[in-house]
Amino acid sequence: MRFSIVLGAMVAVTGAVLFLAFPDLEFYWFRGGPLGAVLMIAGAAEAGEGAWRVRGRLRSGERPETAGGGGNEADTDRGAGRSE
User: Fold this and answer.
1) What secondary structure does DSSP assign to 3-22, as a single string?
2) Is residue 20 part of a domain?
């Protein structure tokens, strides 16, 4: 989840730079201003959704995913099933 928040923020910042600093730049058939606006909206939506999911998991008492990705259920009980 944190990766999607960071990715969304990076996309939004890139869109803001395109929108504000390079509005007349042409990238293939896209102009910088409209492309920057779309990237800002998409980045804000991605970051907002990631933050909403993390907040929802914190409220429900689940452990949020850590950096490096979440493991599967087998990773949570590392010692289960061992006989020593």
Assistant:
1) HHHHHHHHHHHHHHHHHHH-
2) yes
